[in-house]
Amino acid sequence: MASTTSTHESLSAVSTSLAPAAIGPYSQAIKVGDLLFCSGCIPLDPATMEIVEGGVEAQTTQVLKNLKAVVEAGGSELGKVAKTTVFLKSMNDFVAVNAIYAKFFGNHAPARSAVEVARLPKDVLVEIECIASLK
């Protein structure tokens, strides 16, 4: 049975070609009120939709470039990110991911959770999602 659910008028979807297109039935981000909820970003090159070459450092860099593009397309900026969630294939990569994460966010330190998970989409090493303010 097909659902007839439509997006409520209080929500607006965000889409940008500067980040990978959604690979499932979801939006890159959703705006509601003064908040922007960004879907998890994985290390796909938006031009090719292929996973970037290299290890966790290259993947984390691409993930954060993608997240930044979605945040900005949604009308916010990295300095307005309130919360991130970092999903890691291996907690052994925490230090490497943390170093690149710190470079992207600079002096801004959003609230954050970091968890090791059994598997990520396309078997990538890292995925990051966030909630940002639109004010």
TrEMBL record:
Which Pfam family, any one of them, does this sequence belong to? Ribonuc_L-PSP
Q: Which Gene Ontology terms cover its molecular function?
A: deaminase activity
Q: Please name the Gene3D superfamilies in this protein's record.
A: RutC-like
What is the top-level taxon of the source organism? Eukaryota
Name a single GO cellular component. mitochondrion
Q: Which InterPro entries match?
A: RidA, RidA_CS, RutC-like_sf, YjgF/YER057c/UK114
Q: Where does the UniProt annotation place the signal sequence? A: none
User: What SUPFAM superfamilies has UniProt attached to this entry?
Assistant: YjgF-like
Concerning NCBIfam families, the annotation shows:
Rid family detoxifying hydrolase (TIGR00004)
Q: Which family does it belong to?
A: Belongs to the RutC family.
Its protein name is YjgF-like protein
Which organism does this record belong to? Hebeloma cylindrosporum
